[in-house]
Amino acid sequence: MSTNETQTPILRPHPIEGLMTTAMENIKQMVDVNTVVGDAVEANDGTVIIPLSQVAFGFAAGGGEYEVSDVKGNDIMPFAGGSGGGVSIKPIGFLVVRPNSDIRLLSVKGNQLALRLMDLAPEVLNRIETMLSRKEKQVSPG
User: Fold this and answer.
1) What sign does the CA torsion over 18, 21, 23, 25 have?
2) C-alpha span between 130 and 133 (Å, rounded)
3) What is the pLDDT of residues 31-69, one digit of tens each?
4) Among 25, 34, 71, 106, which is least packed by CB within 10 angstroms?
């Protein structure tokens, strides 16, 4: 090789890339659609119950190179790094699908009595209306 030719340095992947790749692959395995929307369960009467969850995750990675000299006095740049992550899974409710096409979201928290009363209000009004119409038929000469 002549002195005019420059040698192209061999580019090696930085060690932080390996940390990031490993961490992201593990997070991808943990968080999928079945984590947020659970497996459906079918009851004997045909009702299907689907659990719903809130999923949050965080991730951090970092590192650095530190200049030190080896025994022979050569400067070397060793790498030190690390990564970490966390996942939070919190149930938020259940989606209930009945065979008569009645679909409801039952929340894990909140005032269930108030929600149930709101669900039943139309049915109660229909029953009152039916009772009143029966009384009117009985009172009016027919």
Assistant:
1) negative
2) 5
3) 666 667 778 888 888 899 988 888 887 878 778 877 777
4) 71
Read off the tokens for 117.
Answer: 């009363």
| Residue 123 CA from chain centroid, whole number | 35
Residue type (1 letter), 122: P
Question: pTM of the full predicted structure?
Answer: 0.47
Q: d(Cα 134, Cα 105) in Å, to the nearest integer?
A: 35
Q: What is the pLDDT of residue 94?
A: 87
Which amino acid, residue 115?
Answer: L
Token representation of residue 104:
């409801």
E strands present in the chain: 41-42, 48-65, 68-69, 75-76, 79-97, 103-107
**For residue 121, how far is the Cα from the chain centroid?**
33
